[in-house]
Amino acid sequence: MKYTFETEVRGYELDSYGHLNNAIYINYTEQARWEILKNAGLLESFLSNNLLLVVIETNIRYIRELKLFDNVKVETQISFDAPYLIFQHNILNSTANVKAAKAEVKTLLIDRERVPQDIPEKLLAII
Amino acid sequence: MKYTFETEVRGYELDSYGHLNNAIYINYTEQARWEILKNAGLLESFLSNNLLLVVIETNIRYIRELKLFDNVKVETQISFDAPYLIFQHNILNSTANVKAAKAEVKTLLIDRERVPQDIPEKLLAII
Amino acid sequence: MKYTFETEVRGYELDSYGHLNNAIYINYTEQARWEILKNAGLLESFLSNNLLLVVIETNIRYIRELKLFDNVKVETQISFDAPYLIFQHNILNSTANVKAAKAEVKTLLIDRERVPQDIPEKLLAII
Amino acid sequence: MKYTFETEVRGYELDSYGHLNNAIYINYTEQARWEILKNAGLLESFLSNNLLLVVIETNIRYIRELKLFDNVKVETQISFDAPYLIFQHNILNSTANVKAAKAEVKTLLIDRERVPQDIPEKLLAII
Question: In chain C, which residue's Cα lies nearest the Cα of A13?
Fold first, then answer.
């Protein structure tokens, strides 16, 4: 399944060149993952059990710059490569209809003591 | 007239207490002003003439915390107290239906050489 | 007593005009307060007791812009106006030797249940 | 040659788990590169000629979390793989004396019209 997070580039997210700052793309992918957890009904249980989907590795290719008020879609697909959950994020500029970036984010579910946890059924079910 | 900017609190905007960081409220009010400029059709001319609505003073009262996925409305009213444009921003938590913050932001229109400029008619027209 | 937090304006803190973004000044004052808590030996007890110095109101006047690699000093004085702790922050551009901004931040010490707490002696002692 | 940028984890850089947010590591590596450009005496000419070292790809591995007031060193080595400048950043927690992250950042020097430019001698000289 594919999940979509939509936003619009904001004035305070621009760098001194008038482009979206590189780190904000990373923020967008993070928010895409928060929304997926929320939609899977996992937010409460993660928070109350101190579970954290920790990022192990991010590989992002920047393809085209994003500018003020560009409409952005982050389309995400998830795969499970035990014990890792892998998120493939396509960041699209839907104003210009071009791909802006592409990120692969490798995550691991851990608790407060950093002990890896099994991925809940609810999350595996939506992959 | 009243202008509304809407957003939702994102995971990466939270502080270590799980609340929206104080500085992000300021970001939200900035984006509300960018949208007003855009809607007034002033974005292009401001950028091409290097005009900048510079903030002289911000007074913000934090009333209630905002949390992950709270829906936020920033309602803005503008007044002109020559040479200043004053923005009154009400930041509402529309999920909990309470006021989250209230900010008054005093701005001045300047060019690259920091010379104050007249407020364009298009902007005065929407006050 | 006066407390000083020093930093240098970073490339990723600039806005599209090449100036330090308005919200980052607020971040700098927040960090000045974290350092004061740390120097007063209060960080551990605040964290373990879930105590939070919550900001009730910020009033900031922006006097001069800050640019890439400008050296910044945030000089802070604290006063106690029960039940509030008031922080007066002067933000100085020590590269250009001018005042860049001036902020007054009104805070209240609360616990997780938002119950106001007495200001610890260690903190009153350094005012 | 190896270049070092030092900082300390700030309160407003923490996420809701009390760890340094993933995107801030990216900010730190960006600032390391700004400092390298400055030290090579290239900042002025880059700004006046609208030259931009644009990031094409970032690969970052997160090894250990960083916490409030941890001392951080970003050690950077540069290589030239025409037409790309490649930055290898090691992010060290010098408080705990462990490696916190490791990033490879591939950049390209372009002008405002996005035309790739030759890497200046001054920059090649410091590799």
Answer: C15
